């Protein structure tokens, strides 16, 4: 399997296992982004992270509108899906979730994440609408019908795709799915400017200029950059890369057991990572 950490997959599976599909939404169908972010159906742990991820501001920046068709690449446990799906269902839109490509012999952890995601959002179909689960990976086909999407989203996944050698394909697949004039929104852990880009993103941080170059090579035009998700406290010099910080909070190298003696205080005080927030346009 591609170099998405097994611990990351297991964290995703655990997050999904702890989320039950809602029987009834406790608030009206969300007709605005703000209403979707404030939705009572969202797990408390997800809402707690809003102060770091700024979903309302980010989605507005990327240009999310009522009734759009959206492609969310690698939605993981569904943190953003919990916001996107109800909003799109309530406004006549559509959501494609381009999840992990499982292949003929899938990694069990990856399979569990995808199956739990499917079950989670199927259980809440009245709220979430019909979330169309497709796949993205090294040999995957179209993530959505060509030219059908208004917005595609890469949400803290580029570092995984760089490690797996499929970042260029992600941009190509998004470009194919988008309508002319459609937008690509990117949120990604941001490396310090001016250094030599690590093309494998081994610490999880990605050079912003490199992201822009990949997008432009796929045919996109940079429309805007925002500091919505900036965190000046993030020094980026963490012993286990970006995964030292919340929400992963790693205490030992990849694949090793949790280390209860590791002093987490200064890393927890930083909060979640410093991140670039970019919007690209597919030229009309």
From TrEMBL:
It comes from the Bacteria. The keyword Ion transport does not apply. One of its GO terms (biological process) is methylation. Keywords: Methyltransferase, Transferase. InterPro entries: S-AdoMet-dep_MeTrfase_Alr7345 (IPR016980), SAM-dependent_MTases_sf (IPR029063), TAT_signal (IPR006311). One of its GO terms (molecular function) is methyltransferase activity. This is Methyltransferase. It comes from Phenylobacterium kunshanense. The lineage of its organism: Bacteria, Pseudomonadati, Pseudomonadota, Alphaproteobacteria, Caulobacterales.
């Amino acid at each position: 399997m591609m170099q998405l950490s097994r611990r990351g997959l297991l964290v995703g599976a655990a997050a999904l296992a702890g989320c039950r599909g809602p029987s009834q939404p406790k608030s009206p169908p969300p007709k605005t982004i703000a209403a979707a972010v404030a939705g009572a159906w969202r797990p408390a742990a997800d809402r707690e992270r809003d102060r770091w991820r700024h979903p309302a501001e980010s989605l507005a920046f990327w240009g999310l509108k009522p009734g759009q068709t959206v492609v969310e690449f690698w939605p993981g446990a569904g943190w953003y899906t919990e916001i996107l799906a109800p909003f799109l269902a309530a406004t006549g839109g559509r959501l494609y979730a381009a999840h992990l490509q499982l292949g003929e012999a899938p990694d069990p952890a990856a399979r569990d994440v995808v199956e739990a995601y499917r079950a989670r959002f199927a259980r809440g179909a009245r709220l979430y609408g019909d979330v169309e689960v497709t796949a993205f990976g090294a040999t995957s086909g179209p993530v959505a019908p060509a030219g059908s999407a208004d917005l595609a989203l890469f949400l803290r996944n580029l570092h995984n795709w760089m490690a797996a050698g499929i970042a260029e394909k992600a941009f190509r697949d998004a470009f194919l799915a988008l309508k002319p004039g459609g937008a690509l929104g990117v949120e990604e852990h941001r490396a310090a400017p001016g250094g030599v880009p690590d093309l494998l993103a081994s610490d999880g941080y990605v050079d912003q200029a490199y992201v822009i170059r990949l997008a432009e090579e796929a045919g996109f035009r940079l429309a805007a950059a925002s500091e919505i998700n900036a965190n000046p406290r993030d020094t980026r010099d963490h012993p286990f890369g970006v995964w030292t910080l919340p929400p992963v909070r790693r205490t030992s190298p990849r694949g090793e057991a949790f280390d209860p003696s590791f002093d987490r205080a200064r890393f927890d005080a930083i909060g979640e990572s410093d991140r670039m927030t970019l919007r690209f346009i597919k030229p009309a």
